[in-house]
Amino acid sequence: MKRETTSAVDSRLAKALAHPLRVQLLAQLNQGVASPNELAKKLGEPLTNVSYHVRMLHDLGCIELVETEPRRGALEHYYRAIVRPFFSDRDWKRLPQNARNSISDAVFQLIWDDAAASIKDGSMEERDDHHLSRTVLAVDEQGWEELHDLLAQTLEKAMDVQAQSASRASKADGETFCANLVMFTHPTPSTAKQTTAPSSGTRKKRRTSKKTATKA
């Protein structure tokens, strides 16, 4: 099936991404073909919930049925994504604000769920070279645009890092592991603390110093 790029797809994608579980399902199906049963096991969600939201994704034209296989007296349906869970700047601006709010809320729910789970199971501090920071900046309009472009470039570079990691793993019969990368900028609300919170993470040592710098 041909991948569509029309505004109709943008509208359907906005509805699809308005629920955090559908965000996860669409992301998984962009990585490969899977059935609701496989997705439920991978995401640790009830099969009934997954099946419902997979049907919604299919009805919204975001995924397509690839094949069916008989399993234990029933047919297991396998799907793949035909749209990416991604909006260009132009498409995002065309969405109504309530749709943008719903999508942002769904994504932030995923971020919080992941962070809370990693803190609870100890994986947040499993490595001593992870990064965590919050920085309040004072910028003008040009500075805001430059920050926006910087994050877009960083995301593009991160996707290259993922591709290179997969290539190295396939050649050396190695393994990859999942790493969350969260990036966002927003105007600071009036109720927010106007200070820079402590950050954690490693930095490359400067050649002129033997000590590792830390920012506070």
Structural overview:
This protein is mainly alpha-helical. It folds into two domains: about 1-125, Arc Repressor Mutant, subunit A (Orthogonal Bundle), CATH 1.10.10; about 135-185. Helices cover about 50% and strands about 10% of the residues. The chain has seven helices and four strands; from the N terminus they run ααααββααβαβ. It has helices at about 5-15, 20-30, 35-45, 45-60, 90-95, 95-120, 140-170, and strands at about 65-70, 75-80, 130-135, 195-200. A two-stranded antiparallel sheet has the order 1-2. Helix 2 packs across helix 4, helix 2 (about 20-30) crosses helix 6 (about 95-120) and helix 3 crosses helix 4 (about 45-60). The protein is globular and about 60 Å long. About 10% of the residues are buried. The model is unreliable at about 1-5 and about 200-215 (pLDDT under 50).
Q: Are there runs of 5+ residues with pLDDT below 50, and where?
A: 1-6, 202-216
The ordered string of helix (H) and strand (E) elements is HHHHEEHHEHE
Helix content: 40-55%
What is the CATH architecture term of the largest domain?
Answer: Orthogonal Bundle
What is the CATH domain class of the largest domain?
Mainly Alpha
The number of strands is 4
Strand order of the largest sheet: 1-2
Q: Please compute the radius of gyration using only Cα atoms.
A: 20 Å
What does the average pLDDT come to?
A: 82
Distance between the amino and carboxyl termini? 52 Å
Number of helices: 7
From the 3D structure, determine the CATH topology of the largest domain.
Arc Repressor Mutant, subunit A
Total domain units: 2
Report the biggest beta sheet as strand number plus sense, adding barrel if it closes. Answer: 2 strands, antiparallel
Shape category = globular
Question: How large is the share of residues in beta strands?
Answer: 5-15%
The fourth-level CATH homologous superfamily of the largest domain is Winged helix-like DNA-binding domain superfamily/Winged helix DNA-binding domain
Provide the structure class: mainly alpha
